[in-house]
């Protein structure tokens, strides 16, 4: 279903995110017929160039990013015709009257801040001052949303000076992933899971986001962030919220976000002994973290594993183990929900009975499997084995249905539709920082060095011990 007509201004329109994600995403939506003909996309960036030159840049980006099967000359041409450009100075006056003139009345207006957070305030102020963004306009902001609680509060306050919370769309692209949205469908669209979804029946939950890439090329940013700020405070926290939250009364932005916020607020402070920080060393043909970050003495973590407690009625006593890292053995994002063993075994000891395990594979090989204990076929008495009830989306739904839109496609269309459900509310981001800050402050105070781990491994051995000491173990990566 096509969205309404819109004017979308992308500040940072020539930047990396615009080239890799935003514009290719918009093109794919256009090609699918979701973007109406009278929509307009205005790139805005510091350098002056003609709209023609910008279109040529975007054409190059589409060629580079999209495989040939995902584009065709005719629709690329038609898409490029929707593009315009304005050279603008975010901190001065240049270009603003020009932009003001380009905006049309009577269509949805959205402004995408795909720029460094230091410029958010300048952009907000100028959009307001030049009367470009009215009370209905939507503002989209990228992560990182702050560096800690104080800076996130400053950003929120700066935006709030000119815009209402209902106008602000804070992106966490994990929420745009189909498989992440599916977490809510699985939990709240089935009767099967929800009655068991609590400490009484769930032994523990594991959330893994492992990547094979290093931080090369982004070292300057990453070295000031580390895995805690780059991944845990946002993406892993959002996954944790979707697994742990109470059922909202409606699938409506505030109902969903209220419940997520309660989870974050119920998190206990992390005990120092419940965190393992790692940093990758050089591999056979990959540089070390310190080389990638160009900081020979860096204490920043590229891996983190931790045990968390959600202290509320539903989860007390059921730990959540989180881990994420760069340069790991395989690229895997998945959630494992390990149920408890049945309370009493009617079979003899040693039959092989174990606990059910639900694995939700977010990427790759998107799908889920549930291990179920059955009788091992054969005459040998009651021997039990675990078999997976395995559902791979591509198999269950067909390759085409499983060829899901990229997270950005979904999120940008939601901005135009005015649906904030998959965006973070200001208080949610602040609560996540309020929980993160003391953990980082404790490392800084101790000048703690991360443990070095081999590139292409599953992280430091201490991360395995974190679970072993509780009589549990991580699911294998890769
Ligand atoms: C980004 C982080 O937000 O998410 C990156 O800054 C990380 O460090 C990326 O690589 C992971 O996203 P995805 O979609 O590839 O899992």
TrEMBL record:
<feature type="binding site">
    <location>
        <position position="177"/>
    </location>
    <ligand>
        <name>substrate</name>
    </ligand>
</feature>
<keyword id="KW-0313">Glucose metabolism</keyword>
<feature type="binding site">
    <location>
        <position position="46"/>
    </location>
    <ligand>
        <name>NADP(+)</name>
    </ligand>
</feature>
<dbReference type="Pfam" id="PF00479">
    <property type="entry name" value="G6PD_N"/>
</dbReference>
<feature type="active site" description="Proton acceptor">
    <location>
        <position position="235"/>
    </location>
</feature>
<feature type="binding site">
    <location>
        <begin position="12"/>
        <end position="19"/>
    </location>
    <ligand>
        <name>NADP(+)</name>
    </ligand>
</feature>
<dbReference type="Pfam" id="PF02781">
    <property type="entry name" value="G6PD_C"/>
</dbReference>
<keyword id="KW-0521">NADP</keyword>
<feature type="binding site">
    <location>
        <position position="326"/>
    </location>
    <ligand>
        <name>substrate</name>
    </ligand>
</feature>
<feature type="binding site">
    <location>
        <position position="173"/>
    </location>
    <ligand>
        <name>substrate</name>
    </ligand>
</feature>
<feature type="binding site">
    <location>
        <position position="211"/>
    </location>
    <ligand>
        <name>substrate</name>
    </ligand>
</feature>
<comment type="similarity">
    <text>Belongs to the glucose-6-phosphate dehydrogenase family.</text>
</comment>
<dbReference type="InterPro" id="IPR036291">
    <property type="entry name" value="NAD(P)-bd_dom_sf"/>
</dbReference>
<keyword id="KW-0560">Oxidoreductase</keyword>
<dbReference type="InterPro" id="IPR019796">
    <property type="entry name" value="G6P_DH_AS"/>
</dbReference>
<feature type="domain" description="Glucose-6-phosphate dehydrogenase C-terminal">
    <location>
        <begin position="184"/>
        <end position="475"/>
    </location>
</feature>
<dbReference type="InterPro" id="IPR001282">
    <property type="entry name" value="G6P_DH"/>
</dbReference>
<feature type="binding site">
    <location>
        <position position="143"/>
    </location>
    <ligand>
        <name>NADP(+)</name>
    </ligand>
</feature>
<feature type="binding site">
    <location>
        <position position="230"/>
    </location>
    <ligand>
        <name>substrate</name>
    </ligand>
</feature>
<dbReference type="InterPro" id="IPR022674">
    <property type="entry name" value="G6P_DH_NAD-bd"/>
</dbReference>
<dbReference type="InterPro" id="IPR022675">
    <property type="entry name" value="G6P_DH_C"/>
</dbReference>
<comment type="pathway">
    <text>Carbohydrate degradation; pentose phosphate pathway; D-ribulose 5-phosphate from D-glucose 6-phosphate (oxidative stage): step 1/3.</text>
</comment>
<comment type="function">
    <text>Catalyzes the oxidation of glucose 6-phosphate to 6-phosphogluconolactone.</text>
</comment>
<protein>
    <recommendedName>
        <fullName>Glucose-6-phosphate 1-dehydrogenase</fullName>
        <ecNumber>1.1.1.49</ecNumber>
    </recommendedName>
</protein>
<keyword id="KW-0119">Carbohydrate metabolism</keyword>
<feature type="domain" description="Glucose-6-phosphate dehydrogenase NAD-binding">
    <location>
        <begin position="9"/>
        <end position="182"/>
    </location>
</feature>
């Amino acid at each position: 279903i096509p969205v309404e007509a819109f004017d979308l201004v992308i500040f940072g329109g020539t930047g990396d995110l615009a080239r890799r994600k935003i514009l290719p995403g918009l093109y794919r939506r256009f090609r699918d017929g979701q973007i109406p003909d009278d929509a307009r996309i205005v790139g805005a960036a510091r350098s002056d160039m003609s709209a023609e030159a910008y279109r040529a840049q975007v054409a190059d980006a589409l060629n580079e990013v999209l495989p040939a099967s995902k584009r065709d000359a005719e629709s690329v041409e038609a898409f490029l015709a929707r593009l315009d450009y304005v050279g603008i100075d975010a901190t001065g006056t240049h270009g603003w009257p020009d932009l003001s003139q380009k905006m049309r009345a009577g269509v949805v207006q959205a402004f995408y801040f795909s720029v460094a957070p230091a410029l958010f305030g300048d952009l907000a102020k100028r959009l307001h001052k030049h009367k470009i963004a009215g009370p209905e306009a939507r503002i989209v902001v990228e992560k990182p949303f702050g560096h800690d609680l104080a800076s996130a509060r400053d950003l929120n306050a700066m935006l709030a000076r000119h815009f209402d919370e209902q106008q602000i769309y804070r992106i966490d692209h994990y929420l745009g992933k189909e498989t992440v949205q599916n977490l809510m469908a699985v939990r709240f669209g089935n009767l099967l899971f929800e009655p068991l979804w609590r400490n009484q029946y769930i032994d523990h939950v594991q959330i893994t986001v492992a990547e094979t890439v290093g931080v090369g090329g982004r070292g300057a940013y990453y070295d000031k962030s580390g895995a805690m700020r780059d991944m845990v405070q946002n993406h892993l926290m959002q996954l944790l919220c979707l697994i742990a939250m109470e059922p909202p009364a409606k699938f409506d932005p505030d109902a969903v976000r209220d419940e997520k916020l309660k989870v974050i607020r119920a998190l206990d402070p992390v005990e120092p002994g419940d965190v393992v920080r790692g940093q990758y060393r050089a591999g056979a043909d990959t540089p070390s973290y310190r080389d990638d970050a160009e900081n020979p003495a860096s204490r920043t973590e590229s891996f983190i594993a931790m045990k968390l407690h959600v202290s509320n009625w539903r989860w007390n006593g059921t730990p959540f183990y989180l881990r994420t890292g760069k340069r790991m053995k395989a690229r895997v994002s998945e959630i494992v929900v390990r149920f408890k063993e049945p309370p009493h075994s009617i079979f003899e000891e040693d039959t092989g009975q174990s606990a059910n395990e639900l694995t939700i594979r977010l990427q790759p090989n998107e799908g889920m499997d549930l291990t179920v204990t059955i009788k091992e076929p054969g005459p040998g008495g009651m021997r039990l084995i675990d078999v997976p009830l395995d559902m791979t989306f591509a198999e269950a739904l067909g390759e085409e249905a499983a060829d899901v839109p990229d997270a950005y496609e979904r999120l940008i269309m939601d901005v135009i539709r005015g649906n904030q459900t998959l965006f973070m509310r200001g208080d949610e981001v602040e609560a996540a920082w309020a929980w993160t800050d003391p953990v980082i402050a404790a490392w800084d105070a101790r000048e703690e060095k991360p443990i070095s781990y081999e590139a292409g491994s599953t992280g430091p051995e201490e991360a395995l011990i974190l679970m072993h000491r509780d009589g549990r173990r991580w699911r294998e990566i890769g």
